[in-house]
Amino acid sequence: MADKKDNKKPVEQKQPDKNAKNKEKVKPKKKMSKFRYLGGLLMAKMAIGGAAELSHNADEVNKLNVFPVPDGDTGDNMRMTIESGIKAVENLDTDDLGEVMKVFSHGMLLGARGNSGVILSQFFAGTAKGLEGEGKADPVTLGRALEMGVQQAYNSVMTPTEGTILTVAREAVEYAVERITPESTIRTFFADLVKEMHKSLERTPEILPTLKEAEVVDSGGAGLFYIIDGFNRVLNGQKIEVVDSAEGAEKKPESTEKSAPVSLSAFGPDSVMTYGYCTELLVRVQNSKCDAENFDIEPLKAFLATVGDSVVAFKTETIVKIHVHTLTPERVLEYCHTFGEFLTLKIENMSLQHTSNEEISEATPTPVSQKTEETPEKPAERKPYGVVAVASGDGLENLFREFGADEVIRGGQTHNPSTNEFIDAFDKINAEHIFVLPNNGNIMMAASQAAEMYEAAKIHVVGAKNIGLGYAALSTADFSLSDPEAIIEGMNASMDSVLTGYISPSIRDADIGGVHIQNGDTMGIIDKEIVVSDPDPIEAVKKLTSTLLDGRFMLTAFCGKDATEEEKTALESHAKENHPDAEVYFLDGGQDVYPFIFVAE
């Protein structure tokens, strides 16, 4: 830019004064100023471009896995997180940057998945706070907001680790902010941001030894780079092909929202409505109808109690989430319309059952009592404790239900549930205290974020970072205790006494922790350490179980979809011969990815 200005000066000096003035008048100042500020509409377009760029590279990000295990999901988690934000603003018709960022970031918070997805949502939530009240932003304002985003992202992690997405965000923002001058535009700011973000990403293996050992860059940092690179491309007029909604849509595990065929014959022309309607809705409180910021939710709860039961209602900023079983859903809608407008709405006839007669008898909902405003009836009795667990595989899901989980969210490695899925599960439990077993280290942050956002119950996220720890915690939990902290202490004590091991195929050559791994080997993993790698799956199983049974005398083997009878037989024979005092149990877990998950006690 400086060179161009210098070249123009001699030309301008040769023009007559009048012409020089005219030339100044027709200088494209408006065109230049167009990029001195970022507005809401442009921000929304940039977000769509960022999501599209990440979507095109999601598989590459997934493969940036420290362990050579086929369970990489960072790219998908971050993609679904930002797509939740885009869905929230797709019908927003405003150029107010602060308002767009507020709605966008809230959508991301609800849709956040995996640790990188949660950190990403917190980064944009902090940025949105920095842009509150700003209809548009120049580079200085935007830089300050991004600095707030970085700080909130760091604050969201109990023990921040450098060499991760946090470092990539911080170093890039610091660099871009330092280079702001009076001549800076939004374009020059994002150019600096993307430039340094790429360099910072390339430096992550030098900061984090595990990345260097695995010869990969940080996957979360890579995901952030693709998003901001997409922002920058759109800002510079480039078109990024948006992935078809069918291809880019969230791929939910099949039982996250079970939708078996509805038996319409279960409610015929002579049927009597007994069970009512399960009514769920999101309402945006409108300032045109009330004071949105100070809206009191208690009168709403009192009203819902007069027309139904199983009532859950809570407010997050200006969005109200409602769940109620009622015979008169139209009254719920009419009441809610007095203070807001509907964002989502679902009404289901609870008399319609989806499965066999046996399943119908087990799943039949409690009839909704006929109520009137004159004779209000209290909602169903609120119990002291409830449990939400995460598990993947029919056997594991059923096991956690048998042990007392009220709600089991299908998820785990490669299928991390969102913050909103946890909130939905909390909604279904009428309890004072709800214990959450994430059962995966990459799900902990989404569970914790949901706990912070939920107000209708006290949520306790238990430190179960793998399925074995969750199994130990729930199987020994004493819910007869009156103190929830005492229950958690008991769970923690049980988790301290177990080791969890996994059998997994390798997807690439690697040398990790002194173990040489070849592509196609079968690996044995204990917690987060690879302890064995062998070309023979049976030998790998034997070596791993011997390590797990060193000093322990009970082994529970959860058999996945890929476990073979030959491997089970070999394991049983090996245990009897080499560990005669140990008890070995086989349970059908039905999980993907890992043929065996072992819990040693």
Task: Looking at this protein, list some descriptive labels.
601 residues; alpha/beta; Serine Threonine Protein Phosphatase 5, Tetratricopeptide repeat; Alpha-Beta Plaits; Rossmann fold; 4 domains; six-stranded mixed sheet; four-stranded antiparallel sheet; 23 helices; 17% strand; flat
The percent range for strand residues is 15-25%
Count of distinct structural domains: 4
| Morphology call | flat
Rg, nearest Å: 28 Å
Output the structural class: alpha/beta
Characterize the biggest β-sheet.
6 strands, mixed
Task: Please report the first level of CATH classification, the CATH class of the largest domain.
Answer: Mainly Alpha
Give the total of beta strands.
Answer: 16
Examine the coordinates and then state which fold CATH places here, giving the name of the CATH topology of the largest domain: Serine Threonine Protein Phosphatase 5, Tetratricopeptide repeat
Count of helical stretches: 23
Question: Considering DSSP H and I runs of 4 or more, what fraction of the residues is helical?
Answer: 40-55%
The strand order across the widest sheet is 13-12-9-16-14-15
* Fourth CATH level, the homologous superfamily of the largest domain: DhaL domain
Uncertain parts: 1-33, 245-262, 353-379
What does this structure look like?
The chain is an alpha/beta fold and 601 residues long. A hairpin with a 2-residue loop joins β12 and β13. The protein is flat, with a radius of gyration of 28 Å.
